[in-house]
Protein 1
Amino acid sequence: MKRSLQYYIDLILVLTQKDLHVRYKSNILGYLWSIANPLAFAFVFYVAFQVIMRIKMEAYVLFLIVGLFPWQWFSNSLATTTTVFLANAGIIKKVNFPRNALPFSLVLQDMIHFLFSLPVIVLFLLIYHKVPHWSWLIGIPIMLVIQFTLTYGLALFISSINLFFRDMERLVGILITLVFYFTPILYPVSMIPEKYRPLIILNPISPLILAWRGLFFEGRLEWMYMLISLGYGVVALFVGYLVYRKLAWKFAEVL
């Protein structure tokens, strides 16, 4: 058991290192590319909603950033893992190894990029005369586990299904866009009509983003949202692993 666990850990590390090397190979700016996308979107949304539409809200740029960075991890992972098995067809056909390590390593890689974004969040906190809270020491590790569980579960489900239903890749792209606008990233919950507010927890990403925002923006541990997100994560991981186990033996045949 110990040997198989060590083998799996080593495999994950090798795959993650390979993916990081490929992503940053010949990229002079390196680290900056991991934060450029959410910062660019934050700038665009700031101009659109606060400069042009004149939405009245304090520290709106900070509000956007603490929502966009966790969202980038989630959306990038799902968008990338749709084709992870197809992209590694050669290895899957020739080498016998746990295939679920491939989406695992990609989600882990995006989690690392998210961790790289934390200094940027701290910088914007300081710009708006706020400081990191001691609750980060407890909240960040818990939230990392929760978001990783949810994202990996969905990634495992999507990547497995996509081998047999190739339209899944396009469908996921559409769903990610829809979920983005139905998630309170660009707007606070207070802007949602009161009769519809209870419905936001039906979107699995909403409680996750609200928990991150409460932690970063106010230093508050949103236990209710964290537990709801954990529940979604456990369900996603359970369903994703069941689908993967049912289909994994056919992977080499359809690639």
Note: The chain has one domain: 2-254.
Protein 2
Amino acid sequence: MKKVRIGAAQGFYGDTIEPAVATAKEGNVDYLCFDCLAELTMSILVKDKKKDEKAGYTKDLSLSMIALLPYVKKKGIRILTNAGGLNPYAAQQEVVRIASEMGLEGLKIAVVTGDDVAGRLGEFKENGVSLEDMETQRDLSEVEDRIMFANAYIGAMPLVEALKEGADVIITGRTTDTAQFLAPLIYEFGWKSDDWNSLASGVFMGHLLECSGQSTGGNFSGNWKDIEGLDNIGYPIAEVSKDGEFTVSKLETRGGLVTSETVKEQMLYEIHDPSSYITPDVVVDLTEVRLEETGPDVVKVTGVKGKPKPDSLKVVMGYENGCMGQVMVGFSWPDALLKAKKADEIIRNQIRKNGWEYEEIRTDYVGYNSLHGPLASEPGEDLNEVYLRMAVRADTKRDAAKFARLFPPLALNGPPSMGSFTGSPPRDLVGMWSSLVPRELIEPFVTVGFEEVKTGVESNA
């Protein structure tokens, strides 16, 4: 029976590429798939593009392609990545440039565009789409004049089209996290658009691989202390059959761990409703999934069910949301937490006396509640040290900057033992807005373009 091997390449913008290179070299994989985008990533990329119109894609794309393109040429491995971010065409041209300089003539680099809908919001409203925020039901008019980007989550089908046209590397913008992983299976096995169980299995496979080392022992809350070789971790590899059943494993030569527990932890990651995990390609039901350890570092996955895809696509928008000023100062034993709380009281009183108005003031005590927030319990003993972190959201950078100037005087005028003052320059904040848009208003505008690498000839960049 035909099987397709897919390797995870990157779980986020900035993830190490070294395990993916090892997979390309030793893993006998047919595809390497990246998931580089998150809402935070889009916020970073829009700031990059604001400074340089040629930017807007992940900056580590170049290093990744330099490391992996030789295996594309030598072994026929195909790469799918959403590293194009807010500028997939520029990302495509960067890959073409690198491949040309490396002498990899003949590679076919595809780009998928059409997820960028920032210029079409008015058109959507004319077609009766409210574009209200999914979480708060607020009207878009509240932020419409501050929109910085708007991108629809695209499914796998445009990537399948690119594979059918012979693409060696596919660059996309905002896709779902799993689209890069599902597309090769639809292409290889000829799955139909309504083969819901198979499509659901492909999406679930992608979900287990999309976060790189999180299925192979990374970020594992079980017996993490006993996992060997995290400094040399192997990324997950899926071997998929036409019926949708698959195994998750890793290279034997790499560190980490693949068990039903490590896979289960990633299985539940970001899944709000296990019976209805919604993607553009299929709605996935995980309630009957079975995980079976069939060998050392090998887990077989069965029982995934699927339901018809939704009528709408999710559109995520980012809008200008003020500026942040932030300061962190440390206090030492004795009474470290009490000192930090007193400093917080002093700063808040001074803000009131000065008549400064901030949209939000946030206080965290690092070493006590900065991770657990209101769930943190008061420490039972005096802490050795506590860091007070205070941040404000202001209308302007000037207002954010003056907040930081309140802190240096505390060194002599506040609680004792203050040290390690760290102030961050004011920075722009990006608010997030999510809406649903009928898919028929988006998908006809999604396009796939190609460019073949020619050595000694400049690309269109």
Note: The chain has a mean pLDDT of 96.
Protein 3
Amino acid sequence: MIITQKKPIDEVMAMVGDAKRIGIVGCSSCATACATGGQKEVAELAAYLESQGKTVVVTAVAEYCCMNLGVRGTLKPFQDKQLDCVIGMSCGDGVQVVANNINVPVYPSNNTMFLGEAKKLGLFEEACHLCGNCVLGTTGGICPISRCAKSLVNGPCGGAKNGKCEVNPENDCAWILIYNRLKDTNQLEKLSVRREDKGYADVSYPRTINIRGKK
């Protein structure tokens, strides 16, 4: 799940500026789960904008703002409405997809924080850095890139105290968690496997994956 947080409303209003006629697009997937872009949040933002003298012409909540074809359909009611701008209440990728499908300025109402998991309702923890070279098979399914404050791939730094990270004592040491998981699953031999240090020299952004073969 892509975890987002609402931007301060004054930042959103500064982006909107003098725009009068506004559209709002939410997302029924991750942003809804994070309470940053579901039906409720879209309605709340629309009401606030109206209270500030803006005219909210049209609103919608896409099933997935990251899906180009779906967003294209969601935006059909937005076309030819003489909008001054659109506010995207999704992750950064969703905002870009909306911007690619409508010829007016598109502004984000959220900050995109991380790829994470819902531990329970309203509580999210970072789980993956999307690094492109997954080591979970040798670390007991616990990501050292995300869970270790130093992103160490070959064991602990030695600074943990009482099982907690020296950088942030509120966090468990990722490598102690990894050790315990490997021990519990009879895989301690994997601790001796040397993992290559993370380097991004061979990565060229933006990346593209095409499972359909040649374009």
Note: Residues 39-51 form the longest helix (13 residues).
Protein 4
Amino acid sequence: MRSQLSQLLDRLEAIRSDRECLYVFPTRDRNQYTADGFKTLWQRSVHAAMKAGALKAEDRFTFHDLRAYYVTLHKQQTGKLPDIHKNPATTAQVYDRNKEVPRSAN
């Protein structure tokens, strides 16, 4: 079975007339965004979704939340975390939302 990433790239290739650019979110000149540029793009997208009524203010989420969601989903489906950091412990600490945190019933 083909990976979900391969399937996504096939879908992007099918809808784009410009096949030389493989960035999921390219700039106008077909390059990658800087970190600040992507943050600006993300915020504009979130505000546009809220204005259109597709997203409620209380349901807002960050790109980091989205990344953590898919890391967690990957672990649930495969039993292991994806390789997104040099140190796997960092991935587990930052992105794994499967963890159960013990709490007292006070």
Note: Helices lie at 4-15, 35-51, 63-78, 88-95.
